[in-house]
Design goal:
Length: 363
Amino acid sequence: MTDGIAAVERLATLVPLGGFALALVFGAVAQRSGFCTMGAISDLILIGDAHRLRTWVLAMAVAIAGTQALCMTGAVDLGRSMYVGPRLLWLSHLLGGGCFGVGMTLASGCGARNLIRLGGGNLKSAVVLLVMAVCGYMTLKGLLAIPRTAWLDRWVLVLPSSQDVPSLIGEASRPWLVGVASGGLALWCLADCGFRRAPSSILASSLIGLLVVGGWAVTGALGFVPEHPETLEEVFVGTNGHRPESFTYVAPLAYGLELLMLWTDASLRATFGIATMAGTVVGALGAALLTRRFRWEAFSSPSDLGRHLLGASLMGFGGVTAMGCTVGQGISGMSALSVGSMLTVVGIVGGCVVTLRVLEARA
């Protein structure tokens, strides 16, 4: 039993290290390529340019293909992830996603983008991330958890199966659904000649999608213990939720803040999500320094500060309520073909578009 416990402890270290290594690449690639969902939507709405939107969508397509391949080969059990349970919290996904979309527009980017900007020297992002972490923790376990659980999560549809589309239609449909979803999204991206002539964008998108697949492999395959030596039960080691997961950036901020505040609590330790958050900043910092893009930046006015504080608060609440962000639901959750993730994406995009239009009208 002692050897078994030692092996589990090693996995509890290896899984976060794997997340940190993947996030180093993510941070560097996203910093170098300008990967940003809010920027992608604003480019389309304000100037009619869909180039960065295609970058996000192609990453989604690659993640779907790779993640579903892991699922179909039995390497990762997506049914154990938080994205595909039978309880569809439809209002939480839509409203939480909408709050997150409004918030990321006011705060100049989502959680992932602010981590990348922090690595590039943006001090505004440090404030945004801190407020996101506080509001996210309040929504997980504090005051804001009351309206989330008592008012929003009560609106639930209990489905006859898992909420991923292949399970709802029939497991035999999974291969062709994956082909249609990933292939259709990729074809839409590559149908644009301007995008095809940008190999750097295609490479960055593909790498980000593959990194999400790598996250599933690290937590769902490497971190899976079929029989824990103490409980004799299956367990996923090295994640906060004890489930397979991939990149996401709201709840890990909250758990990271908890770890820093309660560092001497032996029951708390760095997890995959916390490690990916740290790795993203370090990767972005390295890329910014190597390309000489590192620049200190601060708030320009009190109104600029206020707008970012409001946006960060909405992202903390909305990201936890919707169980993910533009990366957590928009790529990781979508790679599981989750209906809840699709609703969250609709909410995020809708909230962002409405806010952009309001800001444009006021300007």
